[in-house]
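RETRY 2/3 - previous attempt timed out on the joint model. Re-submitting the same 527-residue input unchanged.
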Amino acid sequence: MLKTTGVPSDRDIEEVFPPRERLEKGPVVVVECFETIPCNPCYTACHSGGIEAFKDITDLPTIDFEKCNGCTLCISSCPGLAIMVIDYTYHQDFVKIIIPFEFFPLPKEGEWVKGLDRNGEEVVKVQVLSVKNSKKQDKTSVISIAVPKAHYKKIRNIKVGVPND
Amino acid sequence: MIHADILVIGGGPSGLSAAIAAGKSGAEVLLVERSQYFGGQLVKQTHMFFGSEKQHASSRGFDIGKKLVEEVKKYGNIKIFHNTTALGIYEDGVVTLEQKIGAEEIYLKVRPQSIIIGTGALEKSLPFPNNDLPGIYGAGAVQTLMNEYLVKPGKRVLMVGAGNIGLIISYQLLQAGVEVAGIIDASPKIGGYLVHASKIRRSGVPILTGHTIVKAEGDKHLEKATIAKVDDHWKPIPGSEMDMNVDVICISVGLTPSSAFFWQGGCEMKYVRELGGYVPKRNRFLQTTVENIYVAGDSAGIEEASSAMVEGSIAGFAASHDLGFVYEDFDREMQDLLEELQGLRGGEKGAHIRAGYEKVMF
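RETRY 2/3 succeeded.
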């Protein structure tokens, strides 16, 4: 499926998702990296030890969910935009999801945008909580959104306003 | 006649890296680049690079190009000529150059002791009815229009080819506000990195593997593309055709090494499918069968820019060393570079590259 369509299966996602007990402790990383390509900036960016050292540059990242503190530093360092941080403890009804975003216009804080799944299909409207786009992010903005709990495993992208013409 | 210890042909990632390494080693270097910019294809790469910190991973391609150019300019012993096309390598070791200065074109001769060739690659094309209609572009042209000249190629694009270039340019089209109707590839699997495929897919662009383009139609310019599923022999299956209303078809079906200078220089050549076409045989220091000609980057075999940079450094250090220039850290540096290159070619994705290189090493 992933290799023919670019869409990871639910099972692929389950495999890289932190366990429920860890989700309930606070923000933590989800790395959707399924292919052994030569790449290690996620490890280089990580200061908490949450992404373990690579033996070989083509290793898949190994995540220590207990050490990861959900700091989000790795999000904009991943050339594949494969990393998000998820905070299940954000709100009783909403999960905070922090994703990389490289399109203009950028959303504004408080704006409602379309929440898209891994097929690019709209699932639910979501509200933007924050937009980080400083020099540190190097043009890969880091966007926090509040996602209704029922959809937190589906949402992976947003669509802002009307498309550019 | 211009003097240079080492002539580097091509100012892309491999050529720039080769010039830096040779410059560090103390050789008098002449680096020539056909275009007005140095950086080669890096100039147009707006995405972040893979690899490790050593190859500037996580930086964007165009920023890497700038860094390399700044580095080159630090060395007083590296001369750089832009707008300068290498024309030919002659039997007596003279290389001729044509340099544009304003409206003038001047003819120059250089007799280097060694030559490093980093001329990159050429795009492959695809035969189908009406493939000459306006609106049908090679991937490189689309990227040049968008990222160098800030011109959108059209409104709605069919991308042919799901390798890294097809995927990356599809993403860049979306970023430029152009609709991508779909990405097709005759192969049963996506050829490019899956992380690229996934990020495009979650922006709503369908990727159809096992599909090919059958024909293009349009009156004065492209209006419609017909695609079809392919069978196990990559032949279109009758009845599976589907029409797409698009004003752009972008052809991204692979690259072939730019090999003319190796043939001229008398290097022993070999056709290696995995490397994209004819490439010179070489040792692990990238020296060809002609003692003073070295190869680096895509002209050595189609690969990523990260490997091109490492190969450039290897060729630059090796060529200087072979001419007797003493770089204190040569042994350690060379060992590191060879290991880096091996690392970049590791894993499942590197398998075909490794297979290709085995066929051309001596």
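The longest helix of chain A spans residues 10-16. Closing ticket.
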